[in-house]
Amino acid sequence: MVKDANSFRGERGLTLIEVLIVVFIISIILAILVPNYSKSTEKAQEKLCFATEKMVEAQMELYRIDVGEEIASTEDLYKLVERGYLKELPVCPAHGEYRIEGKSLFCSKHGHYSAPGAADDHTGGP
Ligand SMILES: [Zn+2]
User: Fold this and answer.
1) What average pLDDT does this structure show over 91-95?
2) Is residue 125 assigned to a domain?
3) Which of 14, 50, 99, 117 is 20 to 30 A (C-alpha) from 123?
4) Does residue 126 lie within any of the structural domains?
5) Exposure of 94 by Cβ count < 10 A (0-12 exposed, 13-18 middle, 19+ buried)?
6) Is residue 89 part of a domain?
7) Domain tally, the chain
8) What pLDDT, in 10s, does the model give residues 42-90?
């Protein structure tokens, strides 16, 4: 009887320790995964932003060829929408703001896809 009680108590203690170990392991896994998750989200947003820049710049070029007029300022971007070159004004997925510089579209958060800082993660750029 005493032996039974001891082993019962022993099992409970072990279970509690196991639970603590599991909680500890889960918290470690979360600590590792959560920053990686937000990092991969940032990467995805940056890629989408650069894709948007490339697409808008291509439409700017098309507009220049078709209409014979440059999209020279950020305010001119609405002309692309007005003439059907874009469905809507470009929006950065990370809420950066786009501006026109020269013939390029720059994001206030991500810069330009050809910028030296941005080229770090993109091999094979010009
Ligand atoms: Zn952006």
Assistant:
1) 95
2) no
3) 99
4) no
5) middle
6) yes
7) 1
8) 999 999 999 999 999 999 999 999 999 999 999 999 999 999 999 999 9
